[in-house]
Amino acid sequence: TNGKAEESDDTQQQQNEYNEEPTANYINAVAGYNNAKPMKNGLLTGWCSWYHYYEHIDEETLADNFRVLHDWKCKITSNAAVVDDGYMTAWGDWNSMKRKQFPDKKKEMKKKTKEKRKQTQHDDDEGDDNNGGSGVMLLSSSSSKKEQDALKRVADTIRANGMKPGLWLAPFAADKNSQLAKDHPDWIIKNDLGRVANSSNCGKFFYGLDASNPQVLQHAYEAIRRAVQDWGYEVLKLDFLYAACLFGNGKHDLSLSRAQVMHNALRTVREAAGPDVFLIGCGCPLGTAVGYVDGMRISADTGPTWYPAFPLPSWDNATLPSLRGMIRNTLTRSSLGHRWWHNDPDCLLLGESTSFTEEEVTSAATVVAMTGGMMLLSDDLTKLNAGRLRIGMRIYPVTGATAIALDLHGANSETGFPSILRLWCTDVATSDTFVDGNNNQSEEEEEVADPNADAIEIAKLTTFSPDRPPQRPERRERSCIRVVWGLGTWSIVSLSNWNDYPAMVYAPKSALLIPSTEVIVSTNSSTKSASSALSTLGKEESKDGETIERKEIAVTPSNENDTIVCTTNEEKEHGYHVFSFWSSKYVWVPHKQNDDDDDDDECSFLLSKKLDPHESEIFHIKPVTPGRPQYIGSDMHFTCGFEVRAFHCDAAGTLDVHLKNDLKRAGYIFLYVPGCTNDIEVTVNGEAGQEVEVMAMTPQGGLKSVAHVGRVLKIWVVIHGMRSEEDGKVTVKF
After folding, report:
1. Exposed, middle or buried, 89 (CB in 10 Å: 0-12/13-18/19+)?
2. Distance between CA atoms of residues 657 and 652, nearest Å
3. Above 70 in pLDDT, residue 15?
4. Main-chain dihedrals φ then ψ at residue 409, nearest 5 degrees
5. Contact (Cβ atoms closer than 8 angstroms) between residue 299 and residue 317
6. What single string gives the DSSP state of each residue in 275-300?
7. Nearest 5°: CA angle at 725, between 724 and 728?
8. Pick from 551, 470, 475, 13: which is nearest to 5 by CA?
9. CA–CA dist 505, 495 (Å, integer)
10. CA-to-CA distance for 490 and 641, rounded, in angstroms?
11. Average pLDDT of 615-630?
12. Chain centroid offset of residue 236 CA
């Protein structure tokens, strides 16, 4: 009876706790039923050719962008490059290349050899034979056979630049002028009137291929098999998949429902690609693809304008190409990510070839970063200016965590989609030897390492897995970013104004409060890796002999093996650090709005900001710890913590902050240090700090307090990406 009573109490507690993701259990149930494996093939970041070049691509232009991506590996980490539409002569004819854009190197070689022979005169037959023999030998060698397939050469170029090659296909679609449509008119889906079924695409009318026909499935199988086995592509973006099940009775097998046809089509696709190819579903019925794809486009196409551009109707901004439509769907479907698949919010456009304002670019970057899915650029990288590039750099690397849309079910009635996202960071159960960003790898290992390794490990801890019990959504594990020991626990809140006019945007108290996990983890090892330590969050005991105590308040750690998760009332009394990431502004706010407020248990201040049209800001809210130094944040990474690889302060008043130095970065970090004297010594990369500013003094208590407990420093840091001990190291003696 004791056990039953405890179970009943626990059940009652769960019922009383507000579930911020009411659909979480349903989504996990669907994932389990369909054997979803969202982490099977990793997480993609990189580049796609579509949104700058559209179908006007060629081999040389693609190679130029691949080289830029390789050169940027110390700025923006990429593990894939996707060749989109434009390489084939027609949809459906997937092995027909545009030879002008993707020339036949074998024919070119023959032509050049022939011209060389005409221009060169030989004095003897032996010389002629030798030269001729040399040309024939080159053409008949294995390398010439390798180079005659243009798409194989492109894949080899991507791989040579350190990324997985990706290719766009629409296996169940065909152009009206394609050879396939002429040869197989019986494969085309007809509507109930016997006419060609409507494909409903805003760009052009195309034919849907009847996936109830075994010959169509064989056609799709061969196209995908060719791309993977013959050309060597490891990522496939499969578009217009809905074309396999267009509405209409003019089909080969009327005994199959449209859902069954779609299921068979996707099963064929996965069997053809094999288990290790990363499949991106696009233009696909969502539920049907669970368990088959690794990534899924969950938004309408983005585009170079906020609203759909003429001649498209601007009022239809939910389904037609536009940045607004992309953002809306990314927010409302964020809960699917890392559960059914990795969400693909579509590409992030940074270039000036769009009509986006700086605020709109920053808002797109905010939504993509906070929702934690795939991240692909799609600009002419050779022309991307430094300012726009830095916006991208500030959200790389990805984190693997997914924010909660707090106003998903109470969104602004005028815009129709959420404006408040929340993540949180914690150092719970992590040590100061956090395994970071491949920092200790050799140059050879660096070339083949996955730049998203940390994000993948974090995502694995909270993603759907049939091998572990379901998570309790109220614990917020899914929206948690794990950081190194010493950084503490804090909230990250993004506010957005999706209106077409300036507006004041507010965040509720629930968005600002530090998650009340009330867990203290005492570890026996100071070398515990993040991936193993993080799994202890919210558990009563771990497999490694850790003891986890639940307490009403947290205490100052006695050594580096203790981690503070929540704060004492004493710390709350000293207010909060609030840091605005995009604008790099800091402000201290009191715990209570006025000194007459008797509520000591929760903060009473409100967070608000007037934002321009389509503007977003990311805020970091961290309780002040008056006697201990704190890392408030930086303008280098949106998490204000993921960029740190070690944080340590000794009893003598020396603070060492080690920033990750596998990437080149330059920017400001913001530190809180106790005390109010001017006797501060700062060194950066082993030399005296050149730009150090005391930008704020932290009050001791409430609004009327005139005494101060510490100050906030603003320090300029340049990280050279040298991976040395001093590179990215900041030391403050106070």
Report:
1. middle
2. 15
3. no
4. -100, 5
5. no
6. TTSEEEE-S--TGGGTTT-SEEE-S-
7. 85
8. 13
9. 7
10. 10
11. 95
12. 18
User: Please, what is the average pLDDT of the chain?
Assistant: 82
Query: Residue 536 pLDDT > 50, yes or no?
Result: no
Q: Beta strands 681-684 and 665-674: pairing type?
A: unpaired
Three-state DSSP at 675 gives coil
H or E segment to which residue 634 belongs? strand 630-634
- Asked whether 223 and 171 are in contact (CB, 8 A), the reply is yes
Helix 358-371 × helix 323-332 angle, to 10°: 20
- Sequence length of the chain is 734
Give the Cα separation of 321 and 20 in Å (integer).
30
Is the pLDDT score of 538 beyond 50? no
The helix (run of H) or strand (run of E) holding residue 647 is strand 644-649
Question: What ranges in 184-237 are assigned the alpha helix state H?
Answer: 214-225
Q: Is the dihedral of CA 402, 407, 413, 415 positive or negative?
A: negative
Inter-CA distances, 479 with 37, 224, 263, 338, Å: 19, 36, 32, 11
Token code pair at residue 643:
């960029």
Task: Please tell me what DSSP assigns to residue 545.
Answer: -
- With a cut of 90, say whether residue 397 has pLDDT above it: yes
Cβ proximity of 727 and 718 under 8 Å:
no
pLDDT in tens, 700-709: 766 566 678 8
Per-residue pLDDT of 195-204, as tens digits, reads 999 887 777 8
Instruction: Fill in the amino acid letter for 366.
Output: T
Distance between CA atoms of residues 401 and 237, nearest Å = 23
DSSP states of 465-478 as a string? -TTSPPP-GGG-GG
DSSP secondary structure string, 639-677?
A: TSSTTEEEEEE-TTSEEEEEE--SS-EEEEEEEEEE---
Q: pLDDT of 718-728, one tens digit each?
A: 999 989 999 99
Instruction: Give the separation between CA 623 and CA 379, rounded to whole angstroms.
Output: 40
Name the residue type at position 190. K
| Percentage of the chain modeled with pLDDT above 70 | 77
**Residue type for position 602:** E
User: In terms of pLDDT, which residue wins out, 142 or 479?
Assistant: 479
- Backbone phi and psi for residue 111, each to the nearest 5 degrees, phi listed first: -65, -45
Structure tokens at 87: 């390489």
Let me know how many helices (H) and strands (E) the chain has, helices first.
Answer: 19, 31
Burial degree of 67 (CB within 10 A; 0-12, 13-18, 19+): middle
Which tens digit of pLDDT belongs to each residue from 400-441?
Answer: 999 999 988 876 667 788 999 999 999 986 433 333 444 444
Of 388, 394, 417, 203, the C-alpha closest to 327 is: 417
> What's the average model confidence in pLDDT over 370-399?
96
Report how far residue 159's alpha carbon sits from residue 152's, in angstroms, rounded to the nearest whole number: 11
DSSP letter string over 422-451? Answer: EEEEE-TT--TT---TTTT--HHHHHHS-T
Averaged over 642-648, what is the pLDDT? 96
Predicted TM-score of the model (pTM): 0.85
In DSSP notation, 561-615 reads: TEE--S--HHHHTT-EEEEETTTTEEEEE-SSSSTT----SS----EEEEE-TT-
The secondary element (H helix, E strand) that includes residue 490 is: strand 490-496
First and final C-alpha spacing in the chain: 58
Task: Calculate mean pLDDT across residues 522-549.
Answer: 34
* Rounded Cα distance, 705 and 140, in Å: 85
Q: What one-letter code names the amino acid at 577?
A: H
